Amino acid sequence: MKRGFVSIALLLMLAIAAAAQGKAKYVFYFIGDGMGVNQVNAAETYLAAIEGRIGIKEMCFPSFPYVALVNTQSAVNGVTDSAAGGTALATGHKTKNGALGVLKDLTTPVTSIADWAREAGAAVGITTSVSVDHATPAAFYAHVGSRGEAYSIGRQLVESDNDFYAGSDFLNPDNPDQSGKDLYSQAKDRGFTIARGYKDYRKKAGNAVRMILLQSEEASKKDRHSIPYAIDRGKNDLSLSDITRAAINFLTRKQNEKNGFFLMVEGGKIDWACHANDLAFIPEVIDMDNAVKVAYEFYQQHPDETLIVVTADHETGGLVLGRNKYQLHLDVAGYQRVSTDKLGKDLHLMHEKYGDKYSWDVVENYLADNFGFWNQVKLSDAQTERLKNAFEKIRNGKGETTKTLYQMDDELAVTVKDIQQECALVSWAVTGHSNGYVPCFAIGAGAEMFQGRIDNTEICKRIAKSAGWQ
């Protein structure tokens, strides 16, 4: 009788252990904003090209064992925006473009996987390389009819019960009520510690109950909308890998009172570069892969309890790799040292610095240093003449300006970009979003659920199922 009881108890223990083994206790949800299939392909093709090879050099996340293609249409549009796309990925519901965390009636709120995780006892982190109140991160905690309601979104962040946030800054921290407290003060009143940069995080994390990690105040004075592009990053700038590392550290610290964690990490500036049709998107994809590697290191320590899912909200730009010649020269992107956004700003500063002495020689040297033109990247006489003509128009105050979603480029910057991509044999269909498939890659506990073709509303549901949060 005693032996039978022991055997039954042992079987129960084994059954419980087997069931527990399949659960994802630690969940990473990476979202490459604007990252379609071709954006990933371009990054791996580029890495091989700069080694002098045709083919690909494998990155971390595209090598995950489970892969799916994802549909991205919103509730009322064949092409989604980031708000509706983020809402689908966060809540499992489609909505109208521009709406966050509500149904297409723009009023009915819906809960997100961050809520499901928190209610199940997990610690929650929501992070991004752009502002903490931008569309994708906001889809995980806010409920508004319009993504443009920045202060209201920020207020909902402050009032949330999540543990960790990170990004460049708040877009609009000032209280519309002039006598009221700004979002920083409100956050502190709600128990958040605010850190400015990774070093400051390390100083403050030990005593923090909840944390908001932002870039330095100096960096926000230059641009509060996002951390710098990877290609433009300075030594002291916050990076997506810093953010991911800090989030893991903080959420792990919470495990004495929490049961596992959910961490969303957005590579937001892939989208921004693609809106500008800028090959700086390639370093952004690689930069997100570096952040995934930080999570992968954690996975290697907890392989039976960790799930990593990497996907996107939509494709941006209608990226085409090739221009009728059955060739591709992405090695050209390896000579680019600045984003086109910084290119335009640098050219403007040079114009101011040199004044009447602003000459073609100055610009020619800059382009040789920062884009490899004429040295590593050979230009035709016609291409050089186009650059000179654009320069003369800018110098004489007659150049045209091109506006894309996140930046304004003068005629010379646009001409540089166009010629660079003629040499690379890359083209774009639009400066907005497309309905192209986006990829989904997964590894770890429950990763087998991410295969084949799936709708964007299914991803968070399958993550929740793998973690037992529903």
Summed up:
It is built from 17 helices and 16 strands. The protein has about 475 residues and is of the alpha/beta class. Strands 5-6-4-3-7-1-8-15-2-16 form a ten-stranded mixed sheet, sandwiched between helices. It has a two-stranded antiparallel ribbon with strand order 9-14. Strands 10-13 form a two-stranded antiparallel ribbon.
Characterization of this structure:
Helices cover 41% and strands 15% of the residues. The strands form four sheets. The protein has a ten-stranded mixed beta sheet with strand order 5-6-4-3-7-1-8-15-2-16, sandwiched between helices. The protein has a two-stranded antiparallel ribbon with strand order 9-14. It has a two-stranded antiparallel ribbon with strand order 10-13. Mean pLDDT is 94; it is low at 1-20. α8 (198-204) links the parallel β5 (192-196) and β6. It folds into two domains: 22-320 and 436-467, 3-Layer(aba) Sandwich (Alkaline Phosphatase, subunit A); 334-426. It is an alpha/beta fold and 470 residues long. The two termini are 39 Å apart.
Task: Please write out the topology.
Elements: H1 2-21, E1 26-32, H2 37-49, E2 66-71, H3 82-91, H4 113-119, E3 123-128, H5 135-138, H6 150-159, E4 164-166, H7 183-189, E5 192-196, H8 198-204, E6 210-214, H9 217-222, H10 240-253, E7 261-267, H11 269-275, H12 281-301, E8 306-311, E9 315-316, E10 319-321, H13 340-354, H14 360-371, H15 381-395, E11 401-403, E12 408-410, H16 411-424, E13 426-428, E14 433-434, E15 438-444, E16 452-455, H17 456-467
Parallel strand pairs: 1-7, 1-8, 2-16, 3-4, 3-7, 4-6, 5-6
Antiparallel strand pairs: 2-15, 8-15, 9-14, 10-13, 11-12
Helix pairs in contact: 2-12, 3-17, 10-12, 11-12, 13-16, 15-16
